[in-house]
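Honest question from a wet-lab person: if I give you the sequences of every part of a complex, can you actually get the arrangement of the whole thing, not just the pieces? Trying it with mine:
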Amino acid sequence: MAAIEMRGVQKSYYLARALDGIDLSIEPGKIVGLLGPNGAGKSTLLKLCAGLIHPTAGSVRVLGQEVSLKTKARTAFVPEIDTFYGWMTVSEALRLEASMFADIDPAEVTELLRELKLDARARIAHLSKGMRAKLKLVAAMSRKADLVLMDEPLAGIDPPARAAILETIATRYRPGEQTIVISTHEVLESEKLFDDVVFLSGGRIALQGNADQLRVEKGKSLNEVFAEVC
Amino acid sequence: MTRWLALIRKEIQASWGPTAVAAALIVALDTWLIARTTAWRIRYPGLSFGLAMVPLAVLMVWTIWAGYLAVRSEWHGRTSMRLMSFPVSGRTVLGSKIVVLMAQFTILAGIAVVGLLLVAAREPGIQFGTVGSMITTAFKPWELAVTVASMTLVLLAGVAYVLSMGIFSFVIGTTVARLSGLIAVVVFGLLGYISNALGPLAMYVFSFIPNPSIIIHSFTFGPGGAEAATYVRHVIPALPFWPLVLGSVILLLIAGRLLETEVDA
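Yes, you can. This is the full assembly:
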């Protein structure tokens, strides 16, 4: 059973086509890099998997099922934008997450907050962009979600915070049990995480495959392949 | 159910501050009016009572916008994406919003009505004692209870419908990329027109099932004035109740479905 299965997926916003005939199968238990420039369709693809939008044509299956409330319960979605309520404190926001997702581990929440130096009593509106990005990560990685979808988790974050985020993903990932899809155009820093990669360009899949194999075949780093393909 | 309750808790957390401020303002206004009634009773008779009605009028206007603003805030704050990534249906999300909005309305309207009665009791122009004795003479206690309960139910159904109209209009507005605010206003206007046009038909259809009843008494004064009045009892079915409830449910179900289809903050 594929973690994500897409067949002939198209997504249009009025006249603009964001995704154009995507056929994709992502194996479970891997970290997959969804790479592409701005406007390539990465966010749209992740939102389709998260059940936030629906395809104009084609089918999307997540964890072997049509996208539904059941798949949402097993999926952690980390959007690029800040979607937490600014008037809440960190602990209130995480309590809301815990009441929505049965798979959240309170001990893991405490541990991650400590590791990422997040104050549970801090009001979210008062957090820096980097801290808010870390909070998104805590909400996602403290769960035992089968599928984690991360949309540009490193965008606009300073280098130390980026390093902390990548470190957390690497250490908290449950290989073989969990699938993590990370969309990014900052390939250089994150490429060591990826088992597989999918390059998107203009709403189509430009290239996909095993990260190590691609490096060997092309004789280049993924960052160089990215520059060549996208 | 647990998730719905969590959403309700979130809505209460978000709204208790503004509700407390509004309640304090109403109490302050009524306290001031009660203090001024004696001074104004000769020069401005009835002014205190009129001013005490202002909070209720403001609440009615607030109802028109509250549903719209409650959903708009999720888009404006870009929190709609998180909300809809939770494993909850659109109707659950909207249901939690409308329940808390109605609770807000009930609390504030309750405070405003109590304040109005307290102001009215001190107004010389209003024969509060006479009105009270007429009511207690005409109504049996259970009739009074049924009437107050029915009127409250119909009022709340009306509030729920107007809130649902606001929510529905905003959600329709989000389905278009541009001019969403204008589209929402047009949809709200159209809904008002359709409700007005179809209301009598809907009330006729629902007149065949049991409705909440409002009991009133017409009276004629005898030679001894109010104390010798004769009363005739009338039972009026509150026909708008079921159409308002059904309309609210339909609007929320459609808006909830649309929410599940496309959330692009």
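Two things worth pointing out. Chain A has one domain: 4-79+145-229. The longest strand of chain A covers residues 16-26.
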